[in-house]
Design goal:
Order of helices and strands: EHEHEHEHHHEHEHHHEEE
CATH superfamily of the largest domain: HUPs
Structural class: alpha/beta
Number of helices: 10
Distance between the termini: 52 Å
Strand content: 15-25%
Low-confidence stretches: none
Strand order of the largest sheet: 1-4-3-2-5-6
CATH architecture of the largest domain: 3-Layer(aba) Sandwich
Bound molecules: pantoate
Shape: globular
Mean pLDDT: 97
Number of domains: 2
Length: 285
Amino acid sequence: MQIVRDIDSLRETVAALRADGGRIALVPTMGALHAGHMALVAEARRRADHVVASIFVNPRQFGANEDLSTYPRREATDAGMLDEVGCALLWAPDAPAMYPEGYATNVGVGGVSDGLDGAARPGHFDGVATIVLKLFNQVQPDLAVFGEKDYQQLAVIRRMVRDLDLPIEIVAVPTQRDADGLALSSRNFYLGEEERRAARALPRALGEAAGAMQRGTPPAEAIAAAGDKLVKAGFEPADYIELRDAATLVPLASLDRPARLLAAARIGTTRLIDNLAVEPDPQIM
Ligand code: PAF
C-alpha cells in the first residue's frame, strides 16, 4: 500500500489506479481504526477494484472545547491494518496540506444538519461537509463508504451529494458493535473500565425504547424512560434522545413511518452517540 501526503502525489497515484481500470472506492476516516472502520474497508473492497482510505483528523469539525488535541492518533498501526486488508492507497495529509494559509471556503448543508449533533456541536457538520467534499474532489472516487453509526453525518453527506450532483455513490454500512452491544467508536478508547461497563446501557436503553415504541408506547414516554435509564447507569443527562424520520431526519412525534432513534450522552468526559432503526408495526399504525 502506498502512503501519500501531498496533493500532487495523490493525484498521480489515483491516476495510475484509474489507468489500471475498474472502480475506485474511498473510505474517509480520522484514523484510530477499529473493526468498525475495517467493515467499511471490507465493503469498499467488495464493491470496487481499488480502495483508497484517508486518515485526517479534521480540525474544522471539532468545537473549541472538544477533543482535537487528545483525539487518538496512531497512523503506523492504522497503515498496517489497511495494508493487511488490501487497501491500495492511504491518503494521509497534514493540516496545512488540507487547509493552506488563507483557506476561506466553507460548505454548509441546511436542514439535515439542524438539531441533534448539529445543535450540540455548532459548526460540526459544516466541518464534516467541507472536508468530505474536499476528499471527494481530491480522490474523485466512484463510491464512498460511511458507517451508520454517524447517522446524521451520513444524511448530511447524502444530501450534499444529491444537491451538488456529485457523481459518487454513497454506501452505508450498519453499525458494528461489541458483544455487549456498544457501538464501536474511536472514542471508546477514552473509557475507563467502569465507564466501559456502564456504557452498554446506551444501546440497551435505545433498544428497549425502540421495542416499546413498536409495541405502541408513545415516543415521548419511551424516550423519557430511556433517558432515566442512562442517568441511572451513570451517564450525564443525554444531550438528546430523539425519534426522526429515517430519510429526512425530520422530528417525529409518532412512529408512523420508518424512523431512527438517535442519542448522544456523556459518561465521565466521553461523549458517546448511537442510533437504531425503528420500523412501525403495520398492525399498530
Ligand atoms: O466519520 C469520520 O471519521 C469523519 O467525520 C470523516 C467522515 C472522516 C470526516 O472527517
